[in-house]
């Protein structure tokens, strides 16, 4: 299960992230947009049957970074930040957790769902946080 998920994410999602300007290596990615850093990471359950795709950001003054503020941008991880989102969750409806289960769904289909959620949920979320940070400056 885990190997099929890894292969699907690397062949479907990683090329999409590259087109979007993300750097890094699987499972951790970052994109620098003028000092505002977008973060994305994949985290697997120990069983390997499911994973989350978590996104976050680092604003220019690093106010969203909770630990290791002196870490260089390319080494920052979502778990170092205060505000983050799991793609597929709906915080406005009280659902803060979403797992992609490759035990019950084809790994490639799940990877395509991740790409769709990056576009529909991730990009607007990152943009809004970048906009808010720019207003504060």
UniProtKB/TrEMBL annotation:
Highest rank taxon of the organism: Bacteria
Matches recorded under InterPro entries: DUF4304
Pfam families referenced in this protein's UniProt entry, alphabetically: DUF4304
Name of the molecule in the record: DUF4304 domain-containing protein
Organism: Prosthecobacter debontii
Lineage, top ranks: Bacteria, Pseudomonadati, Verrucomicrobiota, Verrucomicrobiia, Verrucomicrobiales
């Amino acid at each position: 299960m885990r190997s099929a998920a890894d292969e699907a994410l690397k062949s479907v999602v990683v090329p999409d992230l590259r087109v979007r300007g993300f750097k890094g290596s699987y499972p951790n990615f970052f994109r620098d947009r003028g000092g505002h850093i977008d973060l994305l990471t994949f985290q697997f359950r120990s069983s390997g049957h499911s994973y989350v795709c978590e996104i976050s950001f680092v604003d220019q003054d690093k106010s969203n970074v909770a630990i290791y503020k002196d870490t260089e941008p390319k080494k920052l991880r979502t778990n170092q930040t205060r505000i983050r989102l799991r793609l597929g969750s709906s915080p406005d409806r009280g659902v803060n957790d979403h797992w992609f289960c490759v035990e019950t769904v084809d790994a490639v289909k799940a990877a395509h769902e991740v790409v769709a959620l990056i576009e529909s949920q991730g990009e607007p979320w990152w943009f809004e946080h970048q906009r808010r940070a720019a207003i504060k400056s």
